């Protein structure tokens, strides 16, 4: 049966795939199978393949064929929902596919491992993709390779089309995979190139990677080694401890490990160290310091809170409201009472009335932000008199806006956030903590390049109910210091109402510090004489 070739943009990188089958047959799974066979040397790079697919789909949105556009939109939604069972099988067996030296169509692949699928594209409000499949598929891929080699000799075999159960005659391809040069540039194997320059591959916000902690992270070691060969212009001492020198020792050990074993998400502090970021947390993640030395270093935190952000009168009103809640009495706070801020009273009353009795174990990121996070953050960070602009659904450099918020001055974020809803995984937490630290580092570099300072950035991380904030600075050459600020809990149900005073205090104190940094940067004169070589890009 002949198929009509749809109207496609001319600048597609993988046009052979899009024209090899009808629009209705396009799928993430078949694209991944095609991509693996086109790029056998990158057969383990699922995030790289999905990044390429995402770019292709963005181009397909420009097609004049409405069917193409609708299909591309559907695939884009499915891409955000993560890998299907069939897609996981394809990537788990990617090396075997390459080693078989047989070019397979998607239908042939399914037939050879005896998978029978029904694909249901459920375009509802949740936009989730459901996959139904048999659990009794053949797990012996060696037999599949042997059969494929035999069938290649005959040139033809009958296979069962999984989607409609019709027998069709299909000739196996005779193209040898090892002769394919590949249509992806292996030298640009870091997925973050299409996102932030300092971003890490595959943020967990996009749902594309379901990987374990042991996944290797691609790092340009050569440029890092070159940077560390430069002698720092100034060093940081705490007492008798040369922190700069000790941290250099640690960086050198991490480089040795990266060359021999590679780096994974099991220890994000190793990855951050190669970006010259040192994080002051407990327990000490750096074996080059003793616990006593680390204690003295962390005591020098310049962002330590010395005064309570809430006035005692306001704290008393919040405490009394909490007590009335526990006694099952009216909790309404009257903003007109002496000593009580109208803003605080309105925030307390609104949040109290919208809270569930008990928070769900897992919710969507959208619901988490709009139901729990934004109501308690926006009152403090929004306002015409702020020296910065608060942006919701902030984009960190790629074209896709994402949930969270940022405080921006002249398009440079002074505060960066990463958000994960209730039900997040430990791996998602590690990835987002790594990502937000690198974004703060990038913000500091942008400040120094444009105005020569102040070289400070705020970090806010909300993982489920946990709220953490940090401040990063660059006061010493080649040492991005990430200082902990406050750690509290987000109020997500009526059982956590007693924590509201701490949550409000946290955000008030954070906003005050962010406002100072924003003002410092905003009213600086533009410095056009900064030597960019001095910055660690």
Automatic annotation (TrEMBL):
Residues 178-212 are annotated as: Disordered. Residues 197-207 have a biased composition (Polar residues). It comes from the Eukaryota. This is 2223_t:CDS:1.
């Amino acid at each position: 049966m002949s198929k009509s070739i749809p109207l496609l943009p001319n600048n597609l990188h993988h046009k052979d795939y899009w024209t090899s089958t009808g629009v209705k047959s396009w799928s993430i799974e078949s694209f991944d199978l095609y991509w693996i066979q086109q790029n056998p040397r990158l057969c383990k790079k699922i995030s790289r393949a999905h990044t390429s697919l995402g770019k292709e789909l963005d181009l397909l949105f420009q097609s004049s064929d409405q069917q193409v556009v609708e299909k591309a939109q559907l695939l884009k939604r499915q891409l955000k929902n993560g890998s299907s069972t069939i897609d996981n099988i394809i990537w788990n067996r990617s090396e075997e596919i390459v080693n078989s030296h047989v070019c397979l169509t998607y239908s042939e692949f399914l037939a050879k491992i005896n998978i029978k699928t029904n694909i249901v594209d459920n375009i509802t409000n949740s936009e989730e993709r459901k996959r139904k499949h048999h659990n009794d598929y053949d797990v012996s891929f060696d037999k599949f390779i042997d059969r494929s080699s035999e069938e290649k000799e005959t040139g033809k075999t009958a296979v069962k089309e999984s989607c409609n159960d019709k027998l069709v005659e299909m000739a196996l391809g005779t193209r040898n995979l090892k002769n394919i040069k590949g249509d992806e540039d292996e030298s640009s194997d870091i997925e973050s190139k299409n996102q932030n320059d300092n971003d890490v591959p595959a943020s967990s916000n996009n749902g594309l990677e379901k990987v374990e902690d042991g996944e290797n992270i691609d790092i340009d070691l050569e440029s890092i080694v070159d940077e560390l060969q430069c002698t720092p212009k100034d060093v940081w001492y705490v007492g008798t401890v040369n922190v700069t020198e000790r941290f250099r020792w640690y960086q050198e050990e991490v480089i040795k490990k990266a060359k021999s074993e590679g780096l994974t998400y099991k220890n994000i502090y190793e990855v951050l160290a190669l970006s010259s970021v040192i994080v002051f947390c407990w327990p000490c993640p750096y074996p080059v310091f003793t616990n006593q030395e680390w204690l003295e270093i962390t005591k020098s935190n310049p962002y330590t809170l010395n005064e309570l952000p809430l006035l005692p009168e306001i704290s008393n009103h919040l405490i009394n409201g909490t007590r009335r809640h526990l006694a099952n009495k009216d909790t309404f706070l009257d903003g007109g009472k002496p000593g009580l801020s109208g803003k605080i009273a309105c925030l307390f009353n609104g949040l109290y009335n919208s809270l569930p009795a008990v928070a769900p174990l897992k919710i969507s990121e959208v619901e988490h932000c709009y139901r729990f996070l934004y109501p308690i953050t926006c009152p403090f960070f929004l306002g015409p008199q702020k020296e910065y602009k608060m942006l919701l659904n902030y984009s960190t450099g790629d074209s896709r806006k994402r949930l969270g918020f940022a405080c921006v001055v002249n398009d440079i974020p002074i505060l960066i956030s990463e958000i994960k809803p209730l039900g997040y995984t430990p791996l998602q937490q590690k990835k987002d903590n790594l990502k937000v630290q690198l974004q703060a580092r990038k913000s500091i570099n942008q400040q120094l390049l444009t105005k020569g300072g102040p070289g400070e950035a705020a970090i806010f991380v909300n993982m489920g109910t946990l709220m953490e904030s940090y401040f990063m600075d660059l006061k010493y050459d080649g040492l991005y210091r990430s200082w902990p600020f406050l750690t509290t809990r987000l109020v997500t149900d009526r059982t956590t109402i007693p924590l509201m005073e701490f949550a409000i205090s946290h955000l008030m104190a954070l906003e005050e510090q962010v406002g100072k940094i924003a003002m410092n940067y905003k009213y600086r004169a533009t410095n056009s004489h900064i030597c960019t070589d001095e910055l660690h890009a």
